[in-house]
Design brief:
The complex is a heterodimer of chains A (364) and B (322). Chain A is an alpha/beta fold. Chain A is 55% helix and 11% strand. In chain B, α2 links the parallel β1 and β2.
């Protein structure tokens, strides 16, 4: 094990792997992304994980197995800073399951040990001395890329309902992400940013289309990873719905280093009347954003949460009264390995039809 | 108003969740302050069905039963006591679903007068909590006697502490040596691990303990294991940040190492978050120690026969191993 060069991997969460890759490669480590999340990943994960573990646990376990098959031997797993929700205990159980399956690897849970990872582990992995300026540069590039990813995702969401030809925006967005992944330095990133702006303005659009506005809230993994929700944002977008999703990996990463003011504001002034104390996850963001966007005049809310998610259940308990108070329809999905695409399509279609009738929008 | 002035207010305590940890102490405390207390009856079909109708379908069964108990108490008393245990020891938290109970219960059971105390880092609440509680009682009962007592904060806190310790000393638990010393061949000692609200509510677990005793198994529960053993077991484990889960994990690992315990039954309710991961960890490690472990899940569709069959099979398996 000592002689092999460490090959680092981390489970998928949307497009976040681009930023993780950028950080590790700037520092001088080898990184191999997991194969993209597919049906096989989810089946593998579900087979080896406990029955009632939440869905992100299963998907990330599947990702890890596939990456280990590819030859990775270090797994970086985001574990959260302190626990309440199950997230902070994921890596301990996952390590145990994978070791019992016979894999040899090192599991690193990123949480309170951030300092240890940055200054000691990275030195071991890269074989080089990690210096503070080097780390700062890598962090800056990572954040720049995260910001770019957020920009691309938001542009995609905003343009999707207006596109003339179906799939045009998807193509451009994939191209933009590839460009972001390739860029290595700040100057390259600057040109990429300009290029992305040009690419997205070149898409032919029909401005006149009447669209509905729906906000997607819920647990962050389900909001960010399109593979687990069968690309619900894309489906909604192509039906003529302008989707807003306030969650991004940029926001999560920033919240890891600095206090998240937006979150604080929601907790302090909006959700206080419903929930006095945090239930450990994103339930306060869910409730708060529903109220904010309902006041802004949005037509509907779509909640994505893993089956048996502890904090989201709290939100779901309070939801009916909130929905009644603001007269906003709510569509909620519990995602797990048995969740089928057809099920989702049927429900989304009827939901959108209902919204159209409510607002008298033709949809074309 | 005059009628309310003279009547002693009734505090209802739902017989669910934390009642099985601290229930007797709460009851004594409220009686000492000068309230009447009303404890809801043991869970029955009617209560559970009411709870199931009220709550989200994904919740665990003890929580559904809790909402049923609250609904039962709603019309029968002036206040319902729903405490908020945030953390019992330092750096740990209780289950995230139970932590928000005083907030969610208002939405599930509307028009419920909730009395709440927050417990943070200790089993005794802070003084501010008593002040808030006193204010709430006085507003409802038009400044009658028991509410005013709450303004003497230090005294209230001491009273609560004293009651808690008294009740703890009173509770009779057979020490573990009782099991190790008796060498009867007929009954096999096994360990049943789970939250007290699953183990002690005989409607939710369908008389699990009776069934076990009929089959000639002697049951040890986590309550019988001393705090010292639990503390030592926890040193070898990765840090577990759920307060109740610490006891469960430690006693499970203790049972894995002891040779006189022949098997372990893990009882958890369907959808219990912390249990799902901790139980998996125990099951994975049980392979090393070569000890039979059975996981038993409880939900509203579990039947007596279902449990009976599984336990019989488990008991036969243990006997065959001998």
């Amino acid at each position: 094990m000592k002689n092999i060069k460490p090959l680092i991997t981390s489970p998928h969460m949307g497009n976040t792997y681009i930023a993780v890759k950028a950080f590790l490669e700037t520092v001088g480590c080898l990184y191999v992304p997991c194969p993209p999340t597919s049906r096989r990943t989810i089946e593998l994960g579900a087979r080896y994980s406990p029955e009632f573990a939440c869905f992100p646990f299963k998907v990330t376990l599947g990702n890890m197995i596939e990456a280990l098959e590819k030859g990775a031997n270090v797994i970086l797993m985001a574990a959260g800073r302190k626990g309440l929700c199950r997230l902070a205990y994921y890596h301990i159980v996952q390590e145990k399951i994978l070791k019992n399956l016979g894999f040899e690897f090192e599991m690193v849970g990123l949480g309170n040990n951030l300092r240890d990872v940055l200054f000691r582990k990275i030195e071991l992995w890269s074989g080089k001395c990690s210096t503070l300026p080097g780390l700062i540069k890598a962090t800056a590039i990572t954040f720049r890329k995260l910001k770019l990813i957020r920009k691309i995702e938001n542009l995609t969401r905003n343009l999707r309902p207006y596109q003339v030809e179906r799939g045009e925006v998807e193509k451009i967005s994939r191209k933009a992400l590839a460009l972001t992944e390739e860029a290595k330095t700040f100057s390259q990133l600057k040109t990429v940013e300009r290029e992305i702006k040009r690419l997205f303005t070149s898409i032919p659009i029909m401005k006149k289309r009447e669209v509905l506005k729906v906000v997607v809230v819920g647990e962050f993994f389900c909001c960010l990873e399109p593979a687990v929700s069968f690309q619900i944002e894309k489906i909604l977008g192509e039906m003529g719905v302008l989707v807003t999703n306030n969650m991004s990996s940029y926001r999560l990463a920033k919240g890891f280093l600095f206090p998240d003011l937006q979150k604080w504001w929601i907790n302090k002034f909006i959700v206080k009347k419903y929930l006095r104390y945090s239930g450990g996850g994103e339930e306060r963001r869910t409730l708060g954003e529903i109220e904010i966007y309902a006041r802004k005049g949005y037509d509907g809310v779509c909640i994505l949460s893993p089956f048996l998610c502890l904090p989201e259940n709290t939100a779901k308990t309070i939801l009916p009264s909130l929905s009644k108070k603001f007269k906003i329809p709510v569509l909620s999905f519990s995602l797990d390995e048995n969740f089928s695409e057809v099920n989702m399509l049927t429900r989304v279609e009827s939901f959108v039809d209902m919204l159209r009738r409510k607002k008298n929008v033709s949809g074309n | 108003m005059s009628e309310a002035h003279h009547r002693i207010p009734v505090v209802g305590i739902p017989r669910a969740l934390y009642f099985f940890y601290y229930g007797k102490a709460w009851e004594k405390f409220f009686q000492k302050v000068g309230f009447c207390t009303l404890i809801s009856p043991p869970t029955n079909k009617k209560i559970l069905e009411k709870g199931i109708n009220l709550s989200v379908e994904e919740l665990c069964i003890p929580l559904k039963a809790f909402y049923g108990h609250c609904e039962f108490l709603k019309t029968r008393c002036d206040f319902v006591f729903v405490p908020r245990y945030i953390s019992v020891t330092k750096n740990t938290f209780t289950c995230p679903k139970l932590l928000v109970l005083p907030d969610t219960v208002k939405f599930v059971v509307p028009d419920l007068h909730v009395l709440s105390l927050s417990f943070k880092k200790s089993e005794v609440p802070g003084m501010g909590q008593f002040f808030l509680m006193g204010c709430r009682i006085m507003r409802k009962t038009y400044f009658s006697n028991p509410g005013i007592k709450f303004l003497n904060l230090t005294k209230m806190r001491q009273l609560f502490k004293k009651t808690l310790w008294e009740e703890r000393e009173k509770s009779e638990i057979k020490p573990l040596s009782f099991f190790t010393n008796s060498h009867s061949t007929s009954s096999i000692p096994i360990m049943v691990i789970g939250h007290p609200y699953n183990l002690e509510d005989s409607f939710i677990n369908h008389n699990l303990f009776n069934t076990l005793e009929e089959l000639g198994l002697k049951v040890i529960t986590p309550k019988q294991i001393s705090a010292k053993i639990i503390r030592e077991e926890l040193k070898n484990l990765p840090f577990i940040y759920w307060s109740q889960e610490r006891e469960i994990a430690a006693s499970a690992y203790f049972a894995l190492k002891q040779s006189f315990i022949k098997g372990i039954i893990l009882v958890s309710s369907f959808g219990c978050g912390p249990d799902s991961l901790i139980a998996e960890q125990i099951v994975q490690d049980a392979k090393q120690y070569k000890k039979p472990v059975m996981q038993l899940f409880l939900d509203e569709n579990t039947s007596q026969v279902n449990i009976q069959t599984r336990i019989e099979a488990f008991a036969d398996m243990i006997r065959a191993r001998k």
